[in-house]
Specification:
heterotrimer, A alpha/beta, B mainly alpha, C mainly alpha, A: alpha/beta, ten-stranded mixed beta sheet, B: MetI-like fold, 2 domains, globular
């Protein structure tokens, strides 16, 4: 064996040793801090949710654990963008209860066989909270923005998360579009409105939270967002106000049990019970059962409509957000082609 | 010579001031804006502490693996003789050119429940994706090329004359490596390890896809930072970011100390 | 003092030590086997899965995804900005490495330690900080947010360490006797730089540039805040890919990723080729 080969071999030996050592360490470590698969039986619930309600669950979970059904139940929690979380569960992330931003994220799990197809056959049709699309403006509302039509005025900078990276941003777009229809415009006019709106869009951040960061950093005059987010941000001290336009969409957030964990079912029941809904309302979410919110706490817009009024998510996704043929896709393209530098 | 030296120094430092020092200063300012107490509370929160240790655990596994691989690969590329070196070399860079989120996605496609080996793995009770092994894997993939890229040029510049001379003088293989090659490439390894560790610590995209983000279980410090931002706990987010930065600094200091102790000849061009 | 005896640093490389790894001896094979397994598990399999996904709709679908106007705009923007950024990095990175190795000034150690920071920071922190510093409310009065310049800024930040850290080890090990000899023979500093220093540093610079380019092409997190992700204006390839993933359009995401990857590979391959060619035809 030549000396160079000996060199190589002798490098290899420590390398092999190192590798084996690291691998053993790794396996040992993995054995101890195991994965999301909770083997605590039915006394452990893994909650996979979208990012926003984390603050609410900080109160909801201990409150549930103080009830007889919740006694002794331990929780693991995971928060992230709604679509990503949903996809993760579909790809094998263990979950016992899920709470997402929009219904298609649960439908995906029904198709994957993880959530029963009768998940939304309860008193609240599967929803746990509601909210409305609002327009967030700077404190004092210097540009006097009060409705959707103000957003297409010249010189107004609009912020919305990118509807192609943030599923929840689609609520915003459909709120604006639906409002036009409800105000009596024809679909063609409503689409023209969308075009004018996108012309005024100065930033399309990848998520609602990022859009808020951008807004707070000084960009733009109006941010389209959910009422629950606006309330949460105000509570944390952001110098913002929000405007509820007369015509706006009702945002409905679903919750579902995955598999057959008994504690998870009890937890979901708690979430839609009066006690649970009261906590949601405290945190700025509109309850889905009557009689919980304080009067006047959540003003009802005169022209409230739902996604069902616009044809339901499946049809809307196809018509507006399809990668090549969608209305919004085409609007972005036509704007880009004519105004890209 | 001193005029141009001053000029070079000014240009370099000016560039760094704008691009590096100002952002670092901003981070520290934002972190301690409201005093030390909120920062302390933030970094000692149970989820933060767990995220910290999880990050360390992943780094302690991924970095030595990549270092061993990196040195071996560099030797293969610069001391080996076979065809297809260029191809092998670019293979090493591949994962780095892919967006981290796509790296995570690719790993899920291969090792996830619905992926190529998903059934086999789950059948044998091995959970890779949404568990720590998957996170180690993702981290190793995105930090793969550094040790190779740092060490290979040094090996190249070194040439084999000294090694061959040592061999003809009767030095054994290990001795040659230890006294001749290793000391010469040690700064390459040092910076390779520092870069690998820094990347492994700060990695977000790929890990976020494969981790499942379970608080207190599969949340690394960068994921925790993201969660803090999402929850509008800005101080908490910055505080954890500062911890990450300090860890990276500590790595550099540690590697510096370790290298000085390597028995080797003194270098007149001393260490930065 | 470098360990190489008087062998000039710029002589034609003799890299083939006698009968090294080409032979199939057991020990060498074990080493190569381990490297092979590691590479497969970490790189080959995932990339193969990606290619499979990209082509899963057939070649027509692949072509359509990749030539769509928004995809094209994003790809071109990414490649253009990455090229600009690596060019800047090549120059400034080498300069900074030079100053850090050959120069002395108070605070040098601190500055050197900080070079890796952009790398250790989660990309969201980088994004938030850059937006705060160089956006609408900039304390320095520099506002480049939501413009293409912001893309360059973010990319320069996250690729800062690469060329610097690639060049530093080589500079440290470099044999200065050649430079001194040339100087004593009357060569001016520029000539010394051009004919002796730069050729030695070229492989390291190329290595750093390769890393920079690869990182720039794939970078996502630090760009999302400061660029505004406006399609056709400031939307880069990785953001477009991300949006396709969110849309459940995995083949499109994989397809564009593959294109970006191929571009990066071509650039890296070209750089490696140039570097090896240069080292054979120097002086």
């Amino acid at each position: 064996m030549s000396s160079m080969q000996k060199v190589v071999m002798s490098i290899r030996t420590p390398a092999v040793v190192l590798t084996l050592l690291a691998a053993t360490l790794g396996l040992a470590a993995c054995g101890s801090s195991s994965s999301g698969s909770s083997s605590g039986g039915d006394s452990h619930v893994t909650l996979v949710a979208y990012s926003t309600p984390q603050g609410a669950y900080e109160k909801l979970i201990p409150a549930f654990q103080a009830t007889p059904e919740g006694k002794g139940v331990s929780f693991s929690q995971s928060y992230g963008p709604s679509g990503e979380q949903s996809r993760a569960v579909a790809n094998g992330l263990h979950a016992d209860a899920v709470n997402f931003s929009l219904e298609p994220d649960v439908t995906r799990l029904v198709k994957a066989g993880l959530v029963s197809s009768s998940w939304n056959q309860n008193a609240t049709h599967g929803f746990v909270t509601e909210s409305v699309a609002v327009i967030i403006v700077r404190k004092g509302n210097p540009k006097h923005i009060t409705s959707w039509s103000d957003l297409v005025k010249p010189g107004v900078g609009v912020l919305t998360p990118n509807p192609f990276t943030s599923g929840s941003a689609r609520w915003n777009i459909m709120a604006a579009y639906g409002a036009q229809i409800k105000e009596g415009k024809s679909p063609a006019e409503a689409q023209a409105y969308l075009r004018a709106l996108f012309k005024n869009v100065v930033s399309q951040d990848s998520s609602a939270r990022n859009a808020l960061q951008t807004f707070l950093a000084g960009r733009g005059d109006a941010l389209i967002d959910y009422e629950s987010e606006a309330i949460a941000d105000q509570k944390k001290g952001a110098a913002i106000e929000y405007v509820i336009p007369p015509h706006t969409i009702l945002i409905q957030n679903p919750v579902a049990v995955v598999g057959s964990n008994a504690s998870a079912s009890k937890f979901v029941n708690y979430l839609i019970s009066p006690a649970g809904q009261k906590i949601w309302a405290e945190k700025g979410y509109r309850p889905v059962i009557p009689g919980v919110a304080a009067p006047g706490q959540f003003p009802t817009p005169t022209g409230l409509f739902t996604i069902a009024d616009l044809g339901g998510w499946t049809a809307v996704d196809k018509q507006f957000f399809e990668p090549e043929t969608g209305i919004v896709t085409k609007i972005e393209q036509s704007l880009g082609v004519s105004t890209s530098k | 010579m001193s005029f141009s030296r001053l000029g070079l120094r000014t240009v370099a430092l000016g560039y760094l001031a704008l691009l590096l020092l100002a952002p670092v200063a901003m981070i520290f300012y934002r972190t301690f804006e409201h005093g030390i107490a909120p920062v302390w509370d933030a970094v000692t929160a149970p989820n933060a502490v767990h995220a910290f240790w999880l990050s360390i655990e992943i780094v302690v596994i991924a970095v030595p693996l990549n270092t061993a691989f990196g040195v071996g690969m560099a030797l293969l590329l610069e001391r080996g003789s076979f065809k297809g070196k260029a191809l092998l070399s670019t293979l090493v860079d591949l994962p780095f050119a892919i967006s981290p989120v796509v790296v995570g996605l690719a790993l899920v496609l291969v090792y996830g429940k619905t992926g190529w080996f998903g059934d086999w793995l789950i059948g044998h009770g091995i959970q890779v994706i949404f568990s720590v092994p998957g996170m180690v894997l993702a981290t190793a993939v995105v930090s793969l090329p550094f040790v190779v890229r740092e060490t290979a040029p040094v090996l190249r510049e070194l040439g084999t004359d000294a090694e061959q001379a040592a061999a003809t003088l009767g030095a054994g293989a290990w001795l040659t490596f230890r006294r001749i090659t290793l000391p010469a490439i040690r700064w390459g390894i040092v910076y390779g390890v520092v870069l690998t560790t820094a990347r492994a610590l700060g990695e977000f995209g790929a890990v976020s896809v494969v981790s499942g983000r379970i608080e207190g279980q599969t949340q690394t410090l960068p994921l925790y930072v993201q969660g803090q931002f999402e929850n509008f706990n800005i101080t908490g987010a910055y505080a954890s970011a500062v911890v990450l930065a300090l860890l990276a600094l500590a790595t550099l200091v540690a590697m510096n100390l370790l290298t000085r102790r390597t028995p080797a000849r003194e270098s007149a061009l001393t260490t930065p | 003092m470098s360990t190489t005896p008087t062998a000039p640093a710029v002589a034609p490389r003799r890299l083939k030590a006698p009968a090294v790894l080409g032979g199939g001896r057991a020990a060498g094979a074990l080493g190569k086997g381990m490297i092979g397994v590691y590479l497969s598990v970490l790189v080959l399999l995932p990339v193969a899965a990606l290619l499979a996904k990209a082509g899963s709709g057939g070649l027509d679908a692949f072509w359509r995804e990749v030539t769509g106007p928004q995809a094209q705009a994003a790809i071109k923007l990414t490649l253009a900005m990455s090229a600009i950024v690596v060019a800047i990095n090549a120059v400034f990175g080498t300069l900074i490495a030079w100053v850090l190795v050959r120069d002395e000034f108070p605070g040098k150690r601190t500055v050197n330690a900080l070079i890796d920071l952009p790398f250790a920071l989660p990309t969201i922190v980088a994004g938030v900080v850059l937006l705060a510093l160089y956006g609408t409310n900039s304390p320095l009065g520099i506002d480049v947010a939501f413009t293409r310049a912001s893309i360059a800024l973010a990319l320069l930040f996250v690729t800062l360490p690469f060329v610097v850290r690639s060049v530093q080890p080589v500079l440290i090990e470099m044999d200065r006797s050649m430079e001194e000899a040339a100087a004593s023979l009357g060569a001016g500093p520029v000539t010394v730089l051009r004919r002796i220093v730069l050729p030695t540093l070229t492989p390291a610079i190329v290595s750093g540039v390769a890393l920079s380019f690869a990182r720039a092409v794939g970078e996502f997190g630090s760009l999302v805040l400061i660029t505004g992700n406006l399609p056709f204006k400031t939307e880069v390839g990785s953001v477009y890919v991300f949006s396709q993933i969110q849309d459940e359009n995995l083949p499109a995401a994989a397809a564009v990723s593959v294109v970006l990857l191929a571009a990066a590979l071509i650039v890296l391959g070209a750089l490696t080729f140039i570097s090896r060619w240069r080292s054979k035809h120097v002086l």
